[in-house]
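User: Here's a protein and a ligand (6-chloroguanine). What would the complex look like?
Assistant: Let me lay out the input and then the predicted complex.
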Amino acid sequence: MQIDILTIFPDYFREAFDYGIIRRARAASLVEIKAHDLRSWTSDKHKMVDDRPFGGGDGMVLKPEPIFAAVESLTGAKRGADVPSNKRVVLLSPQGKQFTQSTAAEFAQSEQLVLVCGRYEGVDERVAEALVTDEVSIGDYVLSGGEPAALVVIDAVVRLIPGALGSETSATTESFSEGLLDYPHYTRPPDFEGLKVPEVLLTGHHAEIAKWRSKAAEEKTKKNRPDLLKE
Ligand code: 6GU
């Protein structure tokens, strides 16, 4: 997979992909990740990427021309409708559809992912209307730019690329893939300052342990994410 990030802060991503699973996936050539400076697709001498909003109001809006030019040079497609089905062009914005584990699984199937990071008070809407294949948000809060969201999306996607995780089963038993949160995990010591590990986990009785884990996952979900149980 090729991942291209379009941003006015390419240095934000320095070292971001040098750790853990993403580093391993890159080293194994499962994914190549590049951060591109949006300003390199400007054609004026001041390298302007933003302009004032039509209709008035506070703040600046990212101009369409550099973003359209960048996406065309990275994907070969001029419009979202012309982007081949093995590629995704994704606008990261608080107005996007909620990014979930199933979005991550879908994106993990693609050969190229272009992530467009929004900035300032917004991005010219023609990018969402005509250029991208998807517009996603990572949650109901406002970030000052799409860059942290790009990191989140890349992490969630790369670990789902076949071969990126140590064991192929670990992605299917974790939180959300079954509609529930993950079960609680414990390691040594069995008694930490009076805080005990549930007895059943120390027995080696695999059927009982599986039963305990499934019940504990349900209880944890009821406590922290009751919304998931209603689905
Ligand atoms: Cl993708 N971008 C910004 N700027 N804010 C967000 C977001 C994205 N997702 C949640 N909040």
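Summary: The first helix runs from residue 20 to 27.
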